[in-house]
Design brief:
With 384 residues, the protein is α+β, with helices and mostly antiparallel strands. It is built from 14 helices and 9 strands.
């Protein structure tokens, strides 16, 4: 990409799609970004020079190139590489290539209607795509059309006129208190005991616990810092990568319960034993393979339900350890706002929506306590 002086626009080479090898320029005209396409950089520069000349002399600027949804989608997705995290980009790319382009790709971008978007929803649901995924596809299309609107290629964002189908959130059913205690018993001695105990004890996401490094553990203060996540990135330049969080709010220093500190000590000892092997390569991660490398996230996900089944326990996902931590904290009386802070949710409403149905006896106890308090006041009024 070539960045020119402010006011002269931007020109870049198209890397993918049928226009690969051609060039596209962007120029701000009347506060809106206009695009100019040509097979050579020189022709794009000429078109942009003509547009600036027309603007300077009060003449109409030539209309932008007519795009199909497919052409613009492939161009937009390439632009997103520089603006979103790799995992997010993979999701956008999958949504475009597997859903949006097959259904809407041949339509002229300017001719796209809300009815076309609703058809995309229906076709996706008919193919067995779950509503939650359809909503994600819709979000991707909506973001693309917002940019098309800013580029003055469409007169309105039709995705906003055709809401995605509702996704009924599946209620989480994490470990009960009795199941959590039994889980701690059956996990004793397993090579992933420390991993499971740490995840449950700190309510961590999969990427967070797998991305935990020894440098993040403060032994004297009995704290750990959640400073990033380990994720597998697909495509060119991918692989297992440690990624910093998207926002500063996702970085957290957590106070560690004693039983988790014990698990970390045990894991440190285990690695000390394994490091005597000639195949050991220290990666710095807390939870590793027997050779010292980072754990494959999908393997952890797939192994966990099999472990539970082998020990006669109810089916749970690895991520349900985080849910279990939240529900157990609520069950022992930790305030909702504090649980929300431990989970690092964006707002307390998310915590309430996810876990509000759990442990109704907590709500009953609150009602009884409130009733007893106000009941005393009413009794005093009656006696006087």
């Amino acid at each position: 990409m070539t960045r020119q002086d402010y006011g002269t626009g931007t020109i870049r080479e198209i890397k993918t799609g049928k226009d690969a090898g051609a060039f596209r320029g962007y120029l701000i005209v009347d506060g809106k970004r206009r695009s100019f396409w040509a097979k050579t950089r020189e022709d794009v520069e000429r078109k942009m020079l003509d547009a600036r000349h027309a603007k300077a002399h009060g003449l109409p600027v030539a209309p932008p190139r007519t795009w199909t949804v497919k052409a613009y989608a492939l161009d937009w997705i390439e632009d997103q590489r520089a603006h979103v995290r790799p995992g997010t980009w993979d999701g956008f790319d999958s949504n475009m290539r597997n859903h949006i382009v097959p259904s809407l790709g041949s339509i002229k971008l300017a001719d796209l209607t809300a009815a076309d978007v609703r058809r995309l929803h229906r076709e996706s649901l008919a193919r067995g795509i779950v509503a939650r995924t359809v909503r994600y596809v819709h979000t991707t299309l909506n973001l693309m059309l917002k940019q098309a609107l800013a580029d003055d290629l469409v007169s309105r964002n039709v995705a906003e006129l055709a809401p995605a189908p509702p996704a009924n959130r599946k209620r989480v059913q994490p470990f009960t208190a009795a199941e959590a205690l039994r889980f701690q018993e059956v996990v004793k001695g397993d090579e992933r005991e420390s991993l499971y105990v740490t995840t449950l004890g700190l309510a961590l996401r999969r990427g967070e616990v797998l991305g935990l490094r020894w440098q993040d553990v403060d032994w004297p203060k009995r704290q750990v810092t959640i400073a990033g996540q380990l994720q597998r990135i697909d495509g060119e330049g991918g692989g297992l990568r440690w990624l910093e969080p998207k926002t500063d709010a996702s970085v957290a220093v957590l106070d560690v319960p004693d039983f988790v500190m014990d698990a970390l000590v045990a894991q440190k000892d285990r690695q000390g034993f394994l490091s005597g092997s000639l195949r050991w390569r220290d990666s710095g991660y807390v939870f590793t393979t027997r050779q010292g490398g980072p754990l494959e996230p999908d393997n952890v996900t797939h192994y966990f339900p099999a472990f539970l089944e082998a020990h006669g326990m109810r089916h749970q996902r690895f991520h349900d350890l985080r849910h279990s931590a939240a529900s157990l904290l609520l069950a022992i009386g930790v305030p909702l706002w504090q649980v929300s802070k431990i989970l690092r949710h964006a707002g307390i409403a998310i915590t309430s929506d996810t876990y509000g149905h759990l442990y109704p006896e907590t709500s009953r106890a609150a009602a009884d306590a409130y009733g007893a308090f106000l009941g005393q006041g009413r009794a005093a009024d009656v006696s006087t």
